[in-house]
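Hi there,

I know you've been waiting on this one. I reran it after we fixed the sequence typo, so this is the corrected version. Both the input and the resulting structure follow.
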Amino acid sequence: MSTLEAPTASKSERAYEWLRERIARQEYPPGHRLVLAPIAEALAMSAVPVREAIRRLEAEGLVTFERNVGARVTLVDESAYVHAMQALGVVEGAATALSAPHLGASDLARAARVNDRMRTLLTDLDPHAFTQLNRRFHSVLFEACPNPDLLEAVHRGWSRLSGIRDSTFAFVPGRASHSVDEHDELLELLREGADPLRIELAARDHRWRTMDAFLAARHPDAIGRTA
């Protein structure tokens, strides 16, 4: 039985990656209807693995099923996004500050290499790949946090955020270059052994600036940070 199911699982995974990439690149923007037949035809497979892939995307919050309509790419829940970013900024900032004394030169060099890879993506931005590297960069800086409860809160925040939106950078690609520059500034604070509060605020504000850029893009006439 497992032998018969393996090809379907493989096709389902391929359909999942194919759909997720197009959602990340906004080839399938929020509200876009995902119709089984043309997707299956494009992937040269039956509708079954495509349906499985869409269900998986639904579980991650990237796809929503609407009655009498079917599957659509989830519209951004702005309030949920703001709340997730605010909370993640607070806990990630604290975790990064507590990690600082435990980060060696090799850790900071590893984070710098990831940031250099992010910089190479700026000329032809792939929002999904950029976001994956962004998470890897920050993971180097907060994973050494000695407080397990705080570290769990950071992981939960990242998971929550990815469920709301695969990549903020798909909506505000101009933010990517500023993010890379802010990474350099954060690394410099860590290298010089800056006061923990400065590190915490720098990490928190870095997260919140991305949130602000997203809100500014959606509400160009608004002034100030939305609570």
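Quick highlight: Residues 18 and 43 are 9 Å apart (CA to CA).

Best,
R. S.
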